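Incident log, entry 3
Record: Fringe-like glycosyltransferase domain-containing protein (497 residues)
Problem: checksum mismatch between cached and fresh output.
Input:
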Amino acid sequence: MQLCYSEVDSWTISTFFCVTAPQRNTSLTANLLLSNPVWVVTFTYPLPKPIKLLMYLREIVFVIQSQSSSFHVRQADRQRADLLKQAHSLTEKPPVVLLLHISLNSLGLADLSHSFGKNSSWIVFLEEETSVRMTKLVQVLATFDKNKEWFLGKPLHDEESTIIHHYAFAENPSIFKYPDFAAAWALSIPLVVRLANKVRDEPLKSDFTIDLKHEVALYIWDNGKGPHLTAVPELCTEPEDSPQALYCATTLGSELPMCGEAVNKEDIFVAVKTCRKFHSERVPVIKKTWEKDAIFLEYYSDHADPSIPTINLGVPNTERGHCGKTFAILQRFLSSDVPNTKWLLIVDDDTLISIPRLRVLLSCYDPSEPVCLGERYGYGLSQGGYSYITGGGGMVFSREAVVRLLNSGCKCYSNDAPDDMVLGMCLNALGLPVTHSPLFHQARPEDYARAFLAHQVPISFHKHWNIDPVAVFNKWLRDDLRAKPSDGLNRSAKTEL
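Fresh output:
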C-alpha cells in the first residue's frame, strides 16, 4: 500500500513522502481524504530522548567512499570535518569517520567486523558529495532494531533488463532493489558480522566489478537467503536547498562539480577510434552532435579518408580490444604531430559526450598530477586485481599520466588486447590511481535506473544500439553549459574550492 506521511515534532522523523508503509517500530494514524483519495498518514516514531540519542550517535561508523586525487581528498576532508562538527555540537565523543582512500586495505568486511563488531551498531557508507543531517540520520537509524540484520538505502530498480547487470531478473527487472550510493546506505553490525564470516568461508568469485551498488545488493540478498534492501525515504538525493529535502537525513547537490573557470577548449585533445566500416554510419553522428565543441580532434582509423578526415596510424583494425591503436594514440599525443595540450580524451566512434560539461568537470583536477578519469570498472579486485577506466564512456588522461604510462615501458601484449584493461594493469603496476566519475557512462541511458540519472548532469553515454543517437544526445547531453558563466553556464552549479 502506498502512503504519504509527515512529521510530528523536532524529535520525531520529519517527513512527507509517498512510500510503502515502513516495517519499523511506529504508531500509525491514517485518514482518507474524500476530496482527494489518498491516504495521509502520520507515523510517530518512539524515538529516544536526546541523551539516549547521543548513545546511538557513538554507535555509528561512517565510511566516506573517497578517492585519492587531490580534488577528491579535499571533498572527503570537508565532509569528514562537517560530520565531526555536527557530532561535536551534540556530544564530546565523536563517531568514527573513515576515509576509504586512506584505509582501503583495512576496510573489508572482515576488518569492519573485527574492529567495530562489538562496540558499534551501524556502518553508514557515504559518497564524497553526500550531505548528512546528523540528528535526523541518528533518529532514522534509532527506529530500527540494531540487533537484527538490516540493509538500508534509497532503492533503485531497472526498468528493463540491462547488460550492465548481466540481464539479471530479465522477466521482471523492477522486482530487485539496490541502493543509490549517493543517498548513503547502511548495514547493521549483525549483518556485517555474518557477511564477514561468509566472505571468509566462501571467497568472492566474481571476476568483473561493473556496477558495485547492484553487485553489493545481490551479494547481500544471496538468492533470498539474506535481507533485501529496506527503503528509507529519509535517505535522499534531493538538493539541499530543495523544498522536498526539508525532511531528509541526507541530501545531494545535483549540479555539475565546478572548481572555477572551465578549462579552455584548447586544453583538450580528442582522439576518436573508428574503422572504415563505420565511417558512414557512426562518424556522421559525431559530426551532427558534439564534434563542433572540440577544437583539437582527430579520427583514427585503419583507412585514411580525406573527406572526414581520418588518420591511419599503421595499426591493423581489430574486431575487439584495440590496444595497439590506443597506445599509438598515446604516443602521438606526446609527439610534435599534434598540439601540446594538458588533457587527452579517447572515445569510441559510438560515444556520445558533452565537451562543455567535461571542461567544467576538469576544472576540479590538476593536469600536473597523473589523472586518469572516467567510469571505473574492476577486474579480480577481491583477488588483488585492478581497476580500469572503461573505454566506451570516454577515458580522460592528463599529460602527466600519459608521460608516466609510456615511460614505464608498459605496452600491449597484442593489438586486439582490451585497451582499457591493459591500461588499468599498467596504472596499477605504477601505483597510479584510477579516478571514478559516475557522470561517464559505458552504456545507454536506458541501461541505468531512472532515479539514478535524475540527480546527475551526465557527461557521456555509449552505444547506438536500438536508439536514435542524435535524439539521445539532444535529450541528455545538449544544453547551454559553456566554458564561462557569460556563455550560459548553469549558474547554480556548485563550486568546489
